[in-house]
Design brief:
single chain, 102 residues, globular, 4 strands, alpha+beta, 3 helices, Alpha-Beta Plaits
């Protein structure tokens, strides 16, 4: 299994529009072979002094895939291309962490 943490930095004030597009994508991704978990999360104030500052224009996507082949297939799935085109004007940058369970 591999874990993926995708950090999507958005243009100011577009998070709701981005999340609407992302929520429409979720069922398509969850139907992909090898998808174990796929969902969006946003920062919430916890009061913990260890927490990083709030990021109102960031969406974090938490993913789990059966293996790297499933993740690679996901990256080139037709619905992913359509989604990227749909949100390209909302997104500043996307970074990925691809992790092995320790």
């Amino acid at each position: 299994m591999v874990h993926v943490i995708a950090t999507i930095e958005l243009k100011p004030g577009v998070r709701d529009a981005f999340l609407a597009a992302f929520r429409a994508l979720i069922p398509l991704v969850k139907n992909e072979a090898g998808c174990i978990e796929y969902g969006a999360a946003v920062d919430v104030a916890s009061g913990s002094p260890a927490q990083i500052p709030m990021r109102p224009d960031v969406v974090t996507v938490v993913e789990k895939w059966a293996d790297l082949d499933a993740l690679r297939a996901h990256a080139v799935a037709p619905h992913m291309g359509a989604y990227r085109a749909q949100v390209k004007d909302l997104v500043v940058r996307t970074t990925l962490q691809v992790l092995d369970p320790a």
